[in-house]
Amino acid sequence: METMKIHDVTPNDLPWKIRYDASRCTLCGSCTAACSFRAIAPKVERRRMVFSEGDFPEPKQRFSAVPVIRQVNSVTNYCRGCGICEKVCPNDAIAPVRNVDTRHPLVVRCLAGDSIKRGGRKNLEATVRTLDKLRVGRISQMTDPSLDAQRHTFDLLSPFGRILPAGKLPLKVNAEGKLVPDGQAPPVRWIYPVIIGDMSIGALSWRMWEGVAMATAYLNEECGLPVRMCSGEGGVPVRLLKSRFLKYMILQIASGHFGWNRIVKAMPHMVEDPAGVLIKIGQGAKPGDGGLLMAQKVAEHIQAIRGVPKADLLSPPNHQGLYSIEESVQKMFLSFNAAFKFRVPVAIKVAASSTSVSVFNNLVRDPYNIVGGFFVDGIDGGTGAAHEVSLDHTGHPIVSKLRDCYLAAVAQGRQGQIPLWAGGGLGRTGDLAADAFKMICLGASGVFTGRLILQMAGCVGNDMGRCNACNTGLCPAGITTQEPALAHRLDPEKVAQNIVNYFLAMDQEFKKLMAPIGNSALPVGRSDALVSTDRGVAERLQIQYVC
Amino acid sequence: MCRIGAIKSLNYIHPSQALLLMQSQQKGHDNSGFAMVMQDLGGIFEGYKHLPTLSLACTDEGLKLAEDMLHAAGFQRVLQWVPETNPQPGLDIIAMPNYVFETFDYPKHYKKATDQEKEDLLLDMRLKLRTALEEDEMGFVYSFWPDVVTLKEIGDPRDIGTYFNLWEPDTKFTARVITAQCRQNTNYDIVRYAAHPFFLQGYTALANGENTFYQKNKEMQRKLHRGYIGFESDSQCFLYTLHYVHRQLKWPLSYYKHVVTPLPFETIEKRDDAQQLLAIRQSLSHLEINGPNTIIGVLPDGTLFTCCDAKKLRPIVVGRSADTVAFSSEVCGINEILPDRDWETDIYPHEREIVVIGNDLEVQRWKQ
Questions:
Q1: Residues of chain B scoring pLDDT < 50
Q2: How many domains does chain A have?
Q3: Taking a contact as any Cβ pair under 8 Å apart, which residues of chain A between 173 and 232 contact chain B?
Q4: Prediction ipTM score
Q5: Does A210 reside within a domain?
Q6: In the beta sheet, which residues pair with residue B181?
Q7: Would you call A517 and B248 a contact, using CB atoms and an 8 Å cutoff?
Q8: What is the C-alpha to C-alpha distance for residues A70 and A31, in angstroms, rounded to an integer?
Q9: Which residue of A193, A239, A388, A499 has the fewest CB atoms within a 10 Å radius of its CB?
Q10: Which domain holds residue A43?
Q11: Tens of pLDDT along A378-419?
């Protein structure tokens, strides 16, 4: 008997254990071939069998070598619980089981001397979501009729761009008593109130990114929904930059400026302006931390688009050279508004924080009127890669922060001048229309969503630690990987179809929420339409408490 | 549901016409109040068209306080008219002790002031009086403006008419434009200020409906102008938006409709003035209205108009004779006061138009 070694890694140290039934397994090899993490492997076991052949019990024993599937005992190739083995097994012989006694957080740190990184989302929130404590409770009855979601028309668009107060609009009355333009106003685009959030072409597989872009174009050109997609930081394929579809894209710039060399070079060849520019200051899932694309994912085409070698690509946590809001405003003014000759709205995205209202106030009072949107990203957002400690322990929830920003604007009579867009875990229950609608009633002009788009595409991860391996480049669904074999698991057309169908369903659901409160235009800031069954939430958000 | 009405005539008309207009619609309201604004005054006020008249319902202390404040500010009274009341037992009315209509001359140092300065003075004075009389409900200052009187009371409109002797036509108390509404506020508290029509600096508005963007309108309007106060009724928002668009922004009346019920985006895109309409829609989205509404408005020059919500969820009829035009929630009201008109020329405005009556009584239909 070997001496027991306590420090050997075994399945009971890992977050998931493999349940394997050798009697059902036909050794077809599907599971081991499909496991992108190499967390399971074939192995030969020595088995002892006791048998008796005569008329009377006469036990004998026999030893044989039996091929089986076993879990790999490793902190690098460990099971993420993605369940792909279960999905491909024809005999229901294998599946991951959550290990409640896992020592993984300790073992990895002790063995590697490095922080734990992962993708996905925050995994610590066990309480009921704030949005689930809100109801659309102001239903039209008697005094004002509800509308008919099927028969009536609804205006489901939101502004993206800086909006001037009416008194400052460049309009004058002409001799015929008509208002006519008299000067230039900042550009404003009216778009669908749900923006497909910023996920870069490096974070996503090229097939996934293509599927999302295809869905965006289809929603615009075939369904009449002016949905915009944000590129994420990491550039855009040159072919798209030079195509007419650029008008559906919001180009993002973040602290790494990845991809902008190509964008700038493509400018003379652009046949359409982009839908907007989004300057990313921070991200809700890992506030105060920059973007992170692990070297495993920096494939050849990513190197080309970004102009970088195959290496870990880290965006700094801060825009280098920006030391104040005034300066950042000037830089936005000089660079991005001017870059597209003041035809394209420029917005910023920040992580929700205790200081968000101060930042917002500074921007809304900026006399140059150049900030065309304030995107606030809450703690429940997703990410391609981050340090686990940032993901799980930093950040600020979105709901009260969005409300604070809106009420700060109301207090100054400036509501709507910088449209507020909210994100961060919206649609987490799969029902984005309801979440978005509640955020709109609380003061958002619209919302943005990224993680939910991945889930529409087939992401198998969840908020309880399942998979969350976007950082590894080994995404078993082919969504956040650059491995050709994995990426080909994903059918871009099916991705596009799922996204399109989801948006069509959501559009119906928006109408089913607007009709009962009797509104044909988006009820931005109509918090009287909401009630809460939680007194604390009601008080904090300044809405009616009901019980 | 409220019932609203308006009469505009080439001749001076007595409020009994307004009572008749509203009385036949009594099944549609709940007989809980009566309020009216009279503009372009005749009778005893005809000679004082350029001087402000105070419309005040108050206690004795309230009256004294108001007069003291006005005198202290330099206003000199030139006319006082206290309607004779007829307090019979059994009348359904919760009347204030005093109703006074007093016309004042401007303070001496305002003799050379511009119209704008005078208009600001009148507004500020009214707001001061209102605040001062709010304590212990000493009084309610409905209007303080040249050529305008306002009456608002809680009770059965018939009995209110009897109490103020308004059923008997005379030539003392008349006007060319009268807007009226029969009902106390039912959505919120019963407050005298909550009854339509609402008046501000020459603008009058009254509505039949429910403004479901009340909170959005209110939050925006509070910061737009010092006169946008009260908000005892969701319909006050219609007045403030009218005042803001027409007086503050100085946009033509036709744009009021574009602010309160903007065209759908797909319609805007096809128009030559898309750029302006989009700019209006985005800058004033918080003044948009939703819910079922019909609005009647009067401009300082006496122009009378009406428009509806974008889905046409509340009724309004426009009827006319050679010398009079009447707006009414129900056609029976017009039948009462203009029985001999050609009813085939009645207009039932649709959701995308403003019907405008100028001082020559020409009826214009402006398509949005």
A1: none
A2: 2
A3: 173, 177-181, 185, 188, 190
A4: 0.93
A5: yes
A6: B4, B35
A7: no
A8: 11
A9: A239
A10: 11-114
A11: 998 888 888 999 998 999 999 999 999 999 999 999 999 999
